[in-house]
Each structure stands twice: as C-alpha cells, then as structure tokens.
Design goal:
The protein has 514 residues and is α+β, with helices and mostly antiparallel strands. The chain folds into 3 domains: 61 residues, 2-Layer Sandwich (Herpes Virus-1); 126 residues; 278 residues, Neuraminidase (6 Propeller), CATH 2.120.10.30. The protein contains 3 helices and 32 strands. A 4-stranded antiparallel β-sheet has the order 6-31-30-29, with no helix packed on it. A 4-stranded antiparallel β-sheet has the order 9-10-11-12, with no helix packed on it. The protein has a 4-stranded antiparallel β-sheet with strand order 13-14-15-16, with no helix packed on it. Strand 30 and strand 31 form a beta hairpin. Helix 2 runs antiparallel to helix 3. The longest helix has 111 residues. The chain starts with 27 loop residues before the first strand and ends with a strand.
Length: 514
C-alpha cells in the first residue's frame, strides 16, 4: 500500500501541541510513556534533576544525561515543520495578494490620472477653441465696420463729383452763350454772363467734401491667457464667503449650532433658537428650510445634524420636556425618531456611514461633577454600546467619524482636549489639553477631518481654527478671523464650512488655489 503524500496529510493541532506551553512542538522529546513535550519545556520542568515525573501521567522518567539525552520524536518534529511551512506559504500568499491589490490600486490610480489629464486637456482645447472663435467673430465685426465706413466715404465723393460736374456743364454753356452774344454785339439791360459768373464764384468758394477715414487701433496686449492649471491646497482664510446675520428673519440665524454638507455640496445648518433647519448652496443662496417638531407637536431646538449613508438627516435636540434623535428627509419629512435620556446639555451627532451607526454625545451631571460618554445606536434606536466612560470624559460635545479609518473623534469641552477612538471604541490617543502655546485647546467645539486624515478643530477661546495631523500633532492655524466658531464640516471639494455663533453667520472657506 502506497504511503500517503504530504499534501494528503491533515494536521491535528492538538496532537502536535505541547501540553506545557500549548504551542507547536519545538525540538520534541518523547518520554517512555510515549508522551511528547518541547525540549525547553521539559528542561524547565525537570529543573536539572536526574529524574522527573511526566507532566501528564506522573511516570517517573530517569534522565541521567539530562533532557537533551531523551529520544527525539522525529515524526512529530517533521509534521510541525511541515505545518509551519504551510503557514508560511499562506502568509506569503497573503503578502502576495496584498502586493497585487496594491498594484491594482496603483493601476486604478494611473487610469484615474489619465482620465483627469484628458479632461484637463479637453478643457484647455475647448477654452482655446472658444477664444479663437471669439477672436474670429471680433475680426469679422471690425472688418465689417471698416467696409461700411469705406462705402459711406465713396458715396459721399460720388455725390460731390456729380454736383461739381453738373455745375461745370452749366457754366460751360453760359460761357458759350456769352461769346456768341459778344459776336453779335447785342446789348442787354443786364449782362447775363456777369450774373452767371457771380453765381459760380460763390459756389467755387464752398469747402471741399470732408471724408471720415476709419483707422484701426490694435489693443497693445500680450497673447490672451486661456486660463490656469491649478492644484487645490488646504482651506485658507483668504476671502471666505459668509452669509446670513443674526436674527429670526427669512435670511437670518439665531445661534447656528450645527452644520453638515452633502456630497452634492448642499449646506445644512441647524438654526437653534429659530428651531429650524436651513439649506444653502455653496454661494449662500437659500435652497430650502423647514421647522422641527418633537412629540406632541412641540417645536424642537436642534443641537447638531449629520447625514447618513442613504442621504437622510439625523438631528439631535430637545423640546421643553424631552430629548431625542430624529431622522428627516432632506425636504424635512420626519421618518423615525427615538428618545434620549434628558440631561439638559448640548449634544453632537455623527454617522459611521460604513455601518450606518448613529453616534451621539451625552453629558450627565453627577453629585459632584459632570461625566460624559458617546452612545452608539442602531438606526431604529437600539443602544449598541457606549464609548468614553473609562477615559474620564467630562463634557463631550461635537463628534465626527473619519470615513476612511472609521476613527471616532470627540471634542471634550470640559477637558479642553480631543479624544480619538478606533472603530471598536478603544482609545488611540488624545491631544490638546497638554500642549503649551500653539496647539493648546480651550473649550473646543466643532471637529472634522479632511481626505488626508488631518483634523480641524474649532478652538473657541483662542485661535479659532486649528489644524492637526492624523496623530494629533499641531500643524498650523487655518483661520483666525472667526469670532466664535461652533460647528464645522468639510465639503466634498475640500470646502471648510464654519458656523460663527457670536455673529450669527456661516462662513465657507474655499480651497486656496495658486
């Protein structure tokens, strides 16, 4: 009967594991009782004695030459090596697959870059064609004006020519008649020729025809610029677009407490004391607005707003008697809601769009101090887990989720810091409270991340907007001309949207181009 091939062998991890260290055998030694253990494990078990008991059956095993002198279990050793090699092969294949995936990603990126370059080139060609067409139209227009002016001058010259020739013919006839009368020696009461000559003497004194000569004056300019090829950078504080002042009118805010931006660039703002949500385009034009209501028809004071992966709005807020989270359509129709514990403190809301989890901050007031946490809900309102109790949160307010890494970032007003958790709720790091000088946070509010994972924080009481890298290291001030930033959000094209509660405005910082 043929021996089984190595590929047909099915490993039994229990048979190939040492009962002492519970790992695969390393230099396995077999005892007279047929039990096998790692050489190092037996060495530690025997403690250098000439006899010891089997760790399993307690059989006394003599080892006058030490554990190293015991027979090797070659079969178990070969199987363990084979098993380790199979694991290495799997690991190698996983690494290969990772490399291939990376190469595929590079290939996709290369394809995307080629498509983007083609779009850019098409834009340049189109701009050039439009400019050439406009220049051609302008050329034809100027040539037409020159031709019209030339025709008017020729018509004026022809008219004058005809008039002068007619007068010349008349004068010639008069001269002929005068010569004839002189030959006949006839005398008239008044000399006809004298009158005719006097008439034409006056006509000869008329000024010559005045023509208007068209002159082309080229504009002394260089070759007209088609445009610029630009690369967007981080948002800058230069020339931001601001809209809406404080108040309760149609175009005014009273405490814009929360902002979020859709993939289409629509800006949703919670107008806290006006108890409504207002929707704007990137130019600050009102697209839509709607009032918010809670249970029993009571108006709701909205604290914050976020968008889920289906494009619905999640709003957290309160009425006079309750606190809750409500899901709305973008047009303001309520779809579902669930109650929250009444605390009397502001809340923030964010959505983990990969799992559609709803994350809401909560602050409770204890006997001697406040303590906070982040509650994670399913969309139907079932509490899944809480985050942050163990790290000593005091007053968590605004919250965001890094969509690429699914990290959860929470600004803690009470601790003057930002907590950063992974998707499982484990604390990664915190920053802001221990720094000195630049980078130190004072009563942080709104928070968001850009595509590179950089973190923007509304530093309410000092430098208004601060930029940190994804590890929490301070980079620079993003903007300093905001009086009191509250909520912030990042748009699809890198626009930074900031609500200024002191001025009752919303400011949009567009990416700086250079």
């Amino acid at each position: 009967m043929a021996a089984a091939s190595p590929d047909s062998w099915t490993p039994n991890l229990e048979e190939l594991s040492c009962s002492i260290c519970l790992e695969l055998f390393t230099r396995p030694k077999v005892l007279p009782c047929i039990h096998t253990f790692c050489q190092d494990c037996l060495q530690h078990h025997a403690e250098g004695k000439e006899t010891f008991q089997c760790p399993i059956c307690r059989l006394v095993v003599p080892c006058p030459q030490g554990v190293a002198g015991l027979p090797d279990n070659l079969n178990a050793g070969r199987k363990c090596e084979t098993l380790k090699q199979k694991a290495l092969i799997d690991e190698g294949r996983n690494i290969l697959e990772s490399n291939f995936s990376f190469v595929r990603g590079l290939r996709d990126e290369e394809k995307r870059l080629i498509e983007q370059k083609q779009q850019t080139d098409n834009g340049i060609i189109q701009a050039y064609s439009q400019m050439v067409q406009k220049l051609a139209e302008r050329r034809d227009h100027l040539l037409s004006e020159s031709e019209a002016n030339h025709r008017r001058n020729l018509e004026r010259i022809q008219t004058e020519r005809d008039r002068v020739l007619a007068d010349a013919n008349e004068l010639s006839a008069a001269c002929d008649q005068a010569e004839q009368e002189l030959g006949e020696e006839s005398v008239c009461e008044e000399n006809f020729f004298t009158v005719v000559v006097e008439i034409y003497r006056e006509k000869a004194a008329e000024p010559p025809v005045q023509n208007q000569v068209a002159v082309f004056q080229p504009i002394d300019t260089k070759v007209p610029a088609l445009g610029r090829v630009t690369v967007p950078s981080l948002p800058s504080a230069s020339k931001p677009a601001a809209f809406d002042g404080g108040g309760s009118g149609t175009g005014q805010f009273k405490d814009p407490s929360g902002v979020t931006v859709s993939d289409e660039g629509e800006i949703f703002v919670t107008d806290f004391r006006n108890q409504r949500i207002r929707v704007f385009n990137q130019q600050g034009m009102v697209v839509h607005q709607f009032l918010l209501f809670g249970s029993g028809g009571q108006k709701m004071y909205p604290h914050d707003v976020a968008l889920d992966r289906e494009g619905y709005l999640w709003v957290v807020g309160n009425t006079e008697s309750a606190e809750f989270a409500v899901q709305y359509t973008k047009k303001g129709r309520a779809r579902r809601k669930f109650d929250l514990q009444k605390t009397g403190w502001y809340r923030g809301v964010a959505v983990d769009t990969k799992k559609n989890h709803i994350l809401i901050t909560q602050t409770k007031k204890g006997l001697f101090n406040k303590h906070g946490e982040v509650q994670v809900f399913w969309p139907e309102g079932k509490l899944m887990k809480t985050i942050g109790r163990q790290q000593g949160m005091k007053n968590p307010w605004y919250i965001t989720v890094d969509t690429e890494r699914r990290n959860v970032l929470v600004s803690d007003w009470g601790n003057d810091c930002v907590f950063v958790y992974n998707k499982d709720g484990q604390l990664l790091f915190q920053f802001g409270s221990w720094e000195s000088g630049e980078g130190k946070l004072y009563y942080p509010c709104g928070i968001c991340t850009d595509r590179s994972g950089n973190i923007v924080v509304a530093n309410n009481k000092r430098n208004p907007l601060e930029l940190y890298d994804k590890t929490g290291r301070f980079l620079r001030h993003v903007a300093t001309d905001i009086q009191a930033p509250q909520a912030i959000a990042m748009g699809p094209q890198g626009q930074l949207v900031v609500s200024d509660w002191a001025r009752g405005t919303v400011v949009v910082f567009h990416p700086q181009y250079h």
